[in-house]
Amino acid sequence: MKSFLAEVTESVRLYGDTHALWLRSPDHLASAVPGQFLMAYAGESYDPLLGRAFSIFRVRRGPGGPEFGVLFDVVGRGTDWLSRRREGDQVRLVGPLGRGFEPRERVQKMLLVGGGIGVAPLIWLADSLVAEGREVTMVLGGRTEAQIFPAALLPSEVELVVTTEDGSLGETGRVTAPFERLLPWCDQAFACGPDPMFEALYRVARDAGSNKPIQGLLEARMACGLGICYSCAVFPRKGGVRLVCTDGPMFDLRDLYA
Amino acid sequence: MDLTVNLAPHHKTELRLRNPIMTASGTFSNGLELAKYHDVDALGAIVSKGTTLRPRRGNATPRTAETAAGMLNSIGFQNIGVSALIKTIAPVWERWDVPAIVNIMGETLDEYGTLAARLEGVPGVAGLEVNVSCPNVEAGGLEFGQVPEQAAAVVREVAAHSTLPMLVKLTPSVSDIRPIAMAVEAAGAQALTVTNTIPAMAIDVRTRRPVLSTGSGGLSGPAVKPIAMRNVYLASSVVDIPVVASGGAMTGLDVVEFVMAGATAVQVGTATFLDPAAPWSILAEFEAWCAAEGVTCVDEIRGVARRRD
Ligand SMILES: Cc1cc2nc3c(=O)[nH]c(=O)nc-3n(C[C@H](O)[C@H](O)[C@H](O)COP(=O)(O)O)c2cc1C
Ligand code: FES
After folding, report:
1. What is the mean pLDDT of chain A?
2. What is the pLDDT of residues A135-154, one digit of tens each?
3. Which is nearest to B45 in space by CA: B78, B93, B11, B13?
4. Domain that residue A237 falls in
5. Atom of ligand 1 nearest to the CA of B221
6. What is the pTM of this model?
7. What ipTM was reported for this prediction?
8. B26: CA distance to ligand 1 center in Å?
């Protein structure tokens, strides 16, 4: 696993305070799947020191070849530095890393649930599921309208349901209500968002007596992304310890919360 | 150019490294993850995650925090335990050429002895690194490594149960590292690792609490290099056994510095988190420096910074 330099092809504020950074894909990234992530190293010195984990949010063909995008809010020094990269700048990365989403074969109805910036890996998942001809319904939740990924940027085939806590867009409330309604419809569900959201989704499914697989993409404080530092521990309720970066980041929610 | 070094020159079983670059405990897991992508046999030696008698789940999260040119960690010795290490990891190491050293940590003298006994004669295990940065629960909670007599007692306990070459990893949390270094040498250690992480803390202004779940943790990375440098310099000036440097090595030139301060080998730790190829690129840089300077073996520059003419 070698680090590589990728050239920035585009840097945009996509919506609200959320940025998208597009980079030229090295050849080996062709093997990546939705849900996998990269470690990006900000700055040219030892400060900031560690990499930041970013899901691949989308891939596209640019004028100079394949590109991949990362989607992020500016929350600290690393993301601030990344947000100031411009076309032609280089960013050092390691990846693709981790275990991504695993859509079952020969199932049709896919439910995707994203909370806040957790939408990022679901966009590429939606793109690829639509391309495979599957039916995709997406539930996106946020505190307010500015946090919601714009419908216009999704494939037109995607059925979109929006929730905001302040009611500024879509249904007022959280993603759990539409999730409960749509769970009987779907064959498989995928989620990414804050930890309490996963637990809420797990509870909804359990209380509904559903045994449909729900794949959650976890976030964790990572120092390496490689399985060598043990920073990114997650403790399944039934015992033991797993590493988000190498055992995940995709986990079946039942393996964590049952 | 011959960069081989020997970490146990006077021991029944020597510990020969093809070059002075090692991995640091807890920063390379047990080697299997990166061995998928890199040639571990090109390194001088690898050191296991800190291994305890029983498996440990480790501390609650957050376990790490970024600081200026450094990081804090409080992993809490998450590890699979010595039995699983012997059963599942050592057989893989046996197929490798690179010497694999098991880092062990006990909470009592007895546990250190038992760990040593369990690892005695296990194919694939080339040596022990004894972490004495652990509170002695039977004696008031100071770390074994903070009291010369207790550190020496650990060394004797391990030596009584093991014929493997033994490195003793010292703590920097002492006012003077020299008395500990001498006590550990006198008790029969084959080499010293200088040093473990430095106790430190970061506060989250949003939650108004320490960032780490345990409050404090250990500082590592480039920020600690000058502290490690001085401790290597001091320790190697009072012992005849090899000193292995640990703390902030990021480049081949850092390795050169540590060797000039008196180190026989250098461990690469936090650097591997920034770049999984770090141990290998640091080795390549060190070799290139030696070639450019006409240095043909490590001993030519080892400790030169301590010489006074
Ligand atoms: C995440 C992490 C885990 C560590 N775990 C151990 C351990 O289990 N046993 C040990 O003796 N040292 C452990 N260390 C200390 C390192 O082996 C090394 O001595 C220290 O990090 C200083 O070197 P560096 O600045 O090159 O990282 C750990 C360090 C880090 C950063
Ligand atoms: S981030 Fe280092 S083990 Fe997962």
Report:
1. 97
2. 999 999 999 999 999 999 99
3. B93
4. 109-257
5. 25
6. 0.96
7. 0.96
8. 5
* Domain B5-59+75-199+220-306 class, CATH top level: alpha beta
**Nearest ligand by distance to the CA of B167:** 1
Residue of A nearest to B79 (CA): A230
Is residue A221 in a domain?
yes
Domain co-membership, A246 together with A121 = yes
Give the helix/strand (H/E) hosting A139. strand A135-142
pLDDT digit string, tens, across residues A72-123: 999 999 999 999 999 999 999 999 999 999 999 999 999 999 999 999 999 9
Query: ∠ CA A72-A77-A83 to the nearest 5 degrees?
Result: 45
pLDDT at B140 exceeding the cut of 90: no
- B309 pLDDT band, cuts 50/70/90, is low
Contacts of residue A71, defined as CB under 8 A and 6 or more positions apart, other chains included, come to A14, A18, A19, A20, A54, A55, A57, A58, A117, A119, A120, A123
Please, what are the averages of pLDDT over each run of 10 residues along chain A (258 residues)? 94 96 96 98 95 97 96 95 97 97 97 97 98 98 97 97 97 97 97 96 96 96 98 97 98 96
Which of the ligands is closest to the CA of residue B64? 1
Helix or strand or coil: residue B222? helix
In sequence order, the 6+-apart residues with CB closer than 8 A to the CB of B55 are: B79, B80, B81, B84
Last residue of a domain, one of A43, A61, A96: A96
Picking from B28, B34, B274, the nearest residue to A50 by CB comes out as B274
Domain count, chain A: 2
| A99 Cα to chain B: minimum distance (Å) | 14
Read off the pLDDT of each residue in B52-77 and give the average, rounded to a whole number: 97
The DSSP H or E segment spanning A95 is strand A90-97
The answer to whether A139 and A201 have CB atoms below 8 angstroms apart is no
Q: What is the predicted pLDDT for the residue at B134?
A: 82
Spatial separation of the C-alpha atoms in residues A110 and B206, rounded to whole Å: 38
Q: Hey, which residues of B are catalytic here?
A: 134
Q: Give, using CA atoms, the residue closest to atom 5 of ligand 1.
A: B26
Ligand 1 is surrounded, with C-beta below 6 A, by A 229; B 24-27, 49-50, 73, 75, 77, 103, 131, 169, 196-197, 220-221, 224, 246-249, 268-271
Average pLDDT over residues B73-90: 97
- Cβ separation of B75 and A227 shorter than 8 Å? no
Instruction: Give me the residue spans of the domains in chain B.
Output: 5-59+75-199+220-306
Strand partners, B103: B129
Q: Which of A70, A96, A122 is the last residue of a domain?
A: A96
Chain A interface, Cβ < 8 Å to B: 1-3, 41, 45-51, 94, 220-221, 223-224, 226-235, 240-241, 246
Which atom, in ligand 2's list, is nearest to the CA of A244? 4
Verify that A75 and A119 share a domain, yes or no.
Answer: no
A74, A133: one domain: no
Tell me how close the Cα of B233 comes to any Cα of chain A, in angstroms: 24
Q: What is the pLDDT of residues B192-226, one digit of tens each?
A: 999 999 999 999 999 999 999 999 999 999 999 99
Residue A150, both tokens: 């714009």
Contact call for B78 and A228, based on CB within 8 A: no
